[in-house]
Amino acid sequence: MNDLRKNPLFALFASVQLALVLLTLLGSTAIIGTIVPQNADPALYVHRYGPAWAHFFQLLDIDDMYNSWWFLGLLTLFCLNLVVCSADRLPATLRFLRRDHLAITQDQLASLPLQREQVLLHSPEEEVARLRQRLRKLGWHPQERARDDGVLLFAEKMPWARLGVYVVHLSILVILAGALLGSSGFARRVLHLPGFAYKGFVMLPEGESTDQVRALRGNWLVDLGFSLRLDRFDMALYDNGMPKNYRSLVTILDQGKPVRQAALEVNRPLKYRGVTFYQASYQPYPDYLISLRKLPDKISSAGRIAPATEYMWPEAGIRYGIVNREGRGEITQKVKLWLYDGQGEPSLLWLDTNRETRIDRPAGQFAVTIKPRYASGLQVAKDPGVGLVYAGCLLMLAGLAVAFFCAHRRIFLLVQPEGEDVRLLLAGEAHKNQTAFAATFAQLADELAQTDSQP
Amino acid sequence: MSSSLLFGLAMLAYILASAAYLAGLIFKNPKAGLAGCCLGWGGVALHLLATLLRWQESHQAGMGHVPLTNMYESLVFFALCVALIALVLEYRVKIRTLGAFAMPLAAVAMAYASFADRIDSSIKPLIPALQSNWLTAHVVTCFIGYGAFTVAAALGLMYLLKKRAATPQGSGALLPDLTVLDDLIHKSIIFGFLWLSAGIISGAVWANEAWGTYWSWDPKETWSIITWFFYALILHARFTRGWNGSLLASLSLVGLGVVLFTYFGVNFFLSGLHSYGAS
Fold first, then answer.
1. Lower Cβ count inside 10 Å, N or C end of chain A?
2. Which residues of chain A make contact with B63, given a CB cutoff of 8 A?
3. Closest Cα of chain B to A258: distance in Å?
4. For residue B274, which residues of chain A lie inside 8 Å, CB to CB?
5. What string of pLDDT tens digits covers the 455 residues of chain A?
6. Is A400 part of the contact surface with chain B (CB cutoff 8 Å)?
7. How many structural domains comprise chain A?
8. Does A189 share its domain with A111?
9. Given CB atoms, is B165 within the 8 Å cutoff of chain A?
């Protein structure tokens, strides 16, 4: 290790200075991607910044800068810095924690920042027993040793607080490892297993199923290994026309057999065999789903129909069709239905979509429900690294809490016979937030001094 | 009684508290500082009540969502965080002058939320992407972080003023000692850093629940990590390079600039997922 330390490259990566430089570089270059549009059409860069800049951007992958060689390079250096810097310091910290605190020298004792001396009244043995008992009562659990210079008691709290900072550094590495594991680029180019991790998208029309989705990066088709069928897509709007809810009822078919039915909503994804589906968008189709019942005969029919086309239901003896629609934008709210059973005048009426309407005809009563047909846009993700990322996040929060709010506190009590007197030297230190511990220390010293209040 | 009336009263309380605190500081009158403190706590109480009432109003209107969903609600919550963190800190370390610097910021945030033309204060229903329990966790954690960084900047300003004050009897007489201020700036940044980390993490988890991508380098995400890098830099530089005193105080003010850009700048100047400022 000592030889390594002399290596200038090792010394550079072990330094916090490099971390400061890298943090500055990462933070300042990250701004670029918030100003220059990312992953846009190449023509846009030429149009907006001129050909010279566009060429420069292309050279440095500015159009996809967070995946560029230099930004990933900076991140790699940052990781390397974290590893070397922590590995350089951790052994010393561990040695410090494991060392024999009771072997502390008088000089070291005298150099601790918090000191208090007092004269004790009873014999050293009695005083040590009293101090031991009192410390235990106050939540300190002392070890003790009879030494040449007297009896030394030592107690500490939260020694592990010194490790908090290493936990935070480790958590960053865990998060980045998770990100790497879940990255589609890593799966394709390094592991050569494109199906290992990817993000994809599929626009699935109602009533249809798929066993493939299109990958967002690389534009290739991913085989899911099972299929997904969209049974129904529904959406609800608020009174002011804002979207309230999108919902896809889907069935998962594994080897042709339905194995799971679920309702997908935004913020309510569906996970199956490591692949997660997210409700992302929708697209209205120009045709409709109709369900018809002839009440007296208790017969029914359902199907997909196109507008402005006449359909027949021979069992019920009717002909019908949609002759007009009304709605907000692309969303149909009402349709005009034409229905004729061959007797009298045909029925021609507006009916609300998604609601059953009853129509009285000479041939009997009919119940009609018409629903516009949609395709549901589903985001698809396979990210085997997400668990690692989450674990890293938890580790980071725990590590930060320890690193910021917990301090390793140590106290030493040396009971020394000095001529006729018995002297107590109390010394202490907190590894951070010394001011807060100084108050605790003073209070502790006062409590230990109260010999007479002993029961 | 409507929530907007209560928010108005809370704003008034913050303005009066600011005036009282400033009077206490300038005229070296501890009684005025005490009045500022009482007015500040009164404002916070009204503010909390108003928030609960607005929540209930959204339920009555059939939408039922926590009042943390648009620019108006976020600004108002930001003001609450600043006021509350400053008052709690003031109570814990017994400094009656912090309010003179923090309370005006809370008052300005409230006033901007109420009077700026571009900010709509009506209760709007939630689009599907925002209908998640992570919304509350994400907004609350982020804004506690922003609030703590704002208080750190207020302390930084106090530090710089105290340093400028030539004589101990000058206008800075009531301000705490430089070492105390330095320590408090550092602690506020630490506190904010933990909450900012929690805010970024809760946002990432939410994004993964909604879109299957926990990090997409959206401008808001990127600026939040830039803020995180900035404060990480301050914390490490203090530890290893001894960046404290006036330098730390100035950096806490620069940090507030970065925080405010992450909060407003991204919404107003850049486009992305967090477009709540544009409406």
1. C
2. 238
3. 24
4. none
5. 567 777 888 889 989 899 999 999 999 999 999 999 888 888 889 998 999 999 999 999 999 999 999 999 999 999 999 999 999 999 999 999 999 999 999 999 999 999 999 888 888 888 899 999 999 998 999 999 999 889 999 999 999 999 999 999 999 999 999 999 999 989 988 999 988 999 999 999 999 999 999 998 878 899 999 999 999 999 888 888 788 899 999 999 999 899 999 999 999 999 999 999 999 999 988 899 999 999 988 999 998 999 899 999 999 889 999 999 888 777 888 999 999 988 889 999 999 988 999 999 998 899 999 999 999 999 999 999 999 999 999 999 999 999 999 999 999 999 998 888 889 999 999 998 888 899 889 999 888 876 654 44
6. yes
7. 4
8. no
9. no
Mention every residue, 6+ apart, whose C-beta is less than 8 A from residue A441.
A114, A116, A411, A426, A428
**B189 Cβ partners below 8 Å, 6+ apart?**
B148, B149, B152, B231, B234, B235, B252, B255
Q: Which amino acid is at A85?
A: C
A60, A91, A122 - which closes a domain: A91
Tokens linked to B31: 């009684």
Task: With respect to residue A171, please indicate whether it lies within any of the assigned structural domains.
Answer: no
Q: Which residues of B touch A35 (CB under 8 A)?
A: 270
- The reply to whether A304 and A273 lie within a common domain is no
- A189 and A57, same structural domain? no
- Could you tell me if A349 and A389 lie in one domain? no
A148 lies in the same domain as A209: no
The tens-digit pLDDT sequence of chain B (279 residues) is 788 899 999 999 999 999 999 999 888 888 999 999 999 999 999 999 999 999 999 888 877 888 998 889 999 999 999 999 999 999 998 888 999 999 999 999 999 999 988 888 888 888 888 889 999 999 999 999 999 999 999 999 999 998 887 555 566 677 888 889 999 999 999 999 999 999 999 999 999 999 999 999 999 999 999 999 999 999 999 888 888 889 999 999 999 999 999 998 888 877 666 655 443
Domain annotation covers residue A168: no
Q: Which of B65, B184, B208 is the best substitution to test chain A (most A C-beta atoms within 10 A)?
A: B208
In this structure, chain B runs to a length of 279
Using an 8 Å CB-CB cutoff, list chain B residues near A24.
229, 233
Reduce the DSSP state of residue A288 to 3 states and report it.
strand
Asked if A244 and B223 come within 8 Å (Cβ–Cβ), the reply is: no
- For residue B112, the model assigns a pLDDT of 93
Please identify among residues 229-258 of chain A the ones whose CB lies closer than 8 Å to any CB of chain B.
238, 240, 242-246
Look up residue A111 and give its amino acid.
S
Do A86 and A166 touch, CB atoms closer than 8 A?
A: yes
Question: Does residue A257 form part of some domain?
Answer: yes
Q: How far is CA A12 from CA A19, B225, B238, B242, in A?
A: 10, 25, 19, 19
Q: Are residues A243 and A387 in the same domain?
A: yes
Give A396's contacts in chain B (Cβ within 8 Å). 197, 201
Residue A438 covered by a domain: yes
pLDDT at A94: 95
Domain extent, residue A358, equals 286-373
pTM of the predicted structure, to 2 decimals: 0.90
Residue indicated by tokens 């119940």: A367
Looking at the complex, report in whole angstroms how far the Cα of residue A450 sits from the nearest Cα belonging to chain B.
Answer: 29
Q: Are residues A105 and A31 in the same domain?
A: no
Kindly tell me the burial class for residue A29, based on how many C-beta atoms sit within 10 Å of its own C-beta (0-12, 13-18, 19 or more): middle
Tell me whether A266 touches chain B (CB under 8 Å): yes
B46 min Cα distance to partner chain A (Å): 31
A127/B contact by beta carbon, under 8 A: no
Q: In chain A, what residues touch B268 (CB-CB under 8 Å)?
A: none
What is chain A's Cα-based Rg? Answer: 37
Query: Exposed, middle or buried, A189 (CB in 10 Å: 0-12/13-18/19+)?
Result: exposed
Number of Cβ within a 10 Å radius of residue A32: 17
Grouping H, G, I as helix, E, B as strand and the rest as coil, residue B70 is coil
| Nearest-by-CA chain A residue for B207 | A267
Mutation site for A-interface testing, chosen from B213, B220, B230 by largest number of A Cβ within 10 Å:
B213
Whether A415 and A296 map to the same domain: the answer is no
